[in-house]
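Posting for a labmate who doesn't have an account.
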Amino acid sequence: MAELKNSNDAVNFAKVIPLNNKIIDTVSNSKLDTHNAGGRDNVKHVRGVAGFLFAIIIALFSFTVSSCNDDGNSSKRVNEFQENHSIIGTWKLIAFVDVKNNTYREPDYYVIKDVDGNSIKDTIKDESIKNTKYLLSFDNDTLLSGFTFNNLMNGSYSINYNTDKLHIQCGAATYIAEYSDGELYPICLNMVETFSFTDKELKLFYNNQKNYLLFNRRNNYEN
């Protein structure tokens, strides 16, 4: 410590001490503030990293749950895709369409009954019975089957999805008790030249596209 030689030096030293203490306190507080600020920055950084990792975990969890829920529907979507891009399946005849004359005729649903020796036309009104008539099933890439008005039908076909060309060879094993459009239906099928279709509707064009058979997918008629 500096030696105090007189009273004036003592007074001056006493004045300096508080000032030095204030300077020391200021420096110390400055270092403390710097330390605290660094700590706060570190806390903010840690919180930021933790939040980012939490967001990633939530995203991964959501994706996993979504994938698990999706597994049960994957095969269904594949089947729907194949169905929507192929005519394979069963179709129900809705109408005979005349493009040139712009006419639309539903197939007939009547049978001939013998009543007291007289032939009586009796129209079927039961929809569940009507829905079993005039069917066409593309069973695979080459074979088909179906039902006329009253008889089973089978045959084969060739198709080109790029050119919309379709050739059908089919017929009923027998035409016993065939009524309504039961005989006309396979005749028209054997005349088919081209086609167009969506997932629910099929058009088979014949007679140089002047006529076509209009079908809906069979599942639209299931009770």
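Reply:
Got it, the structure tokens are right above this. The radius of gyration is 44 Å.
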